[in-house]
Amino acid sequence: MATVLIVEDEQAIALLIKYNLEKAGYETICVSQGNKVLPVVEKNNPSLILLDWMLPEISGLELCKIIRNNPEHKNTPIIMLTAKGQEEDKIAGLSAGADDYVTKPFSVPELLARIQTNLRRVGNMSNDKKEYVFKDIILKTREKKVFRGENYIQLAPTEFRILKMLITTPRQVFSRDDLLKEVWGNSVYVEARTVDVHIRRLRKALNEFGPDYIRTIRSTGYSIDDHDIT
């Protein structure tokens, strides 16, 4: 049974989420203060984290960055909950390492669908081919690790899934819609701009140790290709 950590300082919202998640068959843990989140994550190793942006003591945005920098939890799905609905806020949340973004007020069915989709993606990784290789980039599906040569590349789950899709079929061009459907699923609405944010993060991580193999095809999409690399 999956365990969802609910990090929310508004008691009414926390209770609403807790009730509906438990009704859907999930175990839940609730935390209302930012400074108590990390010890709970370390102790309970939740399957997924619902993380409110605005928290006492430390913001959800900062907590997201800290959790993502911990190798033990780098693959734990994180969904940001926030009243901040502007595009720049969404980009900030995704750039901090969140996998998904839900704006308040939200519908319970939508939230449940996003939770289910994110958990399914993590579970599906275990059934993949053991390893994919392109040039000096190695993606290990079972360990959920990426290497560039001898260098370990730490990726958040969403960047890992995007790289996996690209590296599975090198030189094939995937549109933003292709990536959205494969990485986020049909049941979740995500803006096309979100793909660009994660591609930038993926590039930054990979290119620290070698040339850029991710090609941007204007008005079309992305591929992994060494054709233009000299």
Question: What can you see in these coordinates?
Answer:
The structure is a single chain. The protein has 230 residues and is of the alpha/beta class. It folds into 2 domains: 3-124, Rossmann fold; 128-224, Arc Repressor Mutant, subunit A (Orthogonal Bundle), CATH 1.10.10. The protein has 8 helices and 12 strands. The protein has helices at residues 11-23, 37-44, 60-68, 87-95, 108-124, 157-168, 176-184, 192-206, and strands at 3-7, 27-31, 48-52, 78-82, 100-103, 131-134, 137-140, 145-148, 151-153, 174-175, 214-217, 221-224. The strands form 3 sheets. A 5-stranded parallel beta sheet has the order 2-1-3-4-5, with helices on both faces. The radius of gyration is 18 Å and the shape is globular. The model has no long low-confidence stretch (mean pLDDT 85).
Q: Largest sheet at a glance?
A: 5 strands, parallel
Q: Given the structure, what is the number of helices?
A: 8
Average of per-residue pLDDT values: 85
The stretches of 5 or more residues where confidence is low (pLDDT under 50) are none
What number of structural domains do the residues give?
2
Gap between N and C termini, in Å? 49 Å
Specify the CATH class of the largest domain. Alpha Beta
* Strand arrangement, major sheet: 2-1-3-4-5
Rg, please? Answer: 18 Å
Just name the CATH architecture of the largest domain.
3-Layer(aba) Sandwich
Shape, principal axes of CA atoms: globular
Measured as a percent range, the helix fraction is: 40-55%
Beta-strand residue percentage: 15-25%
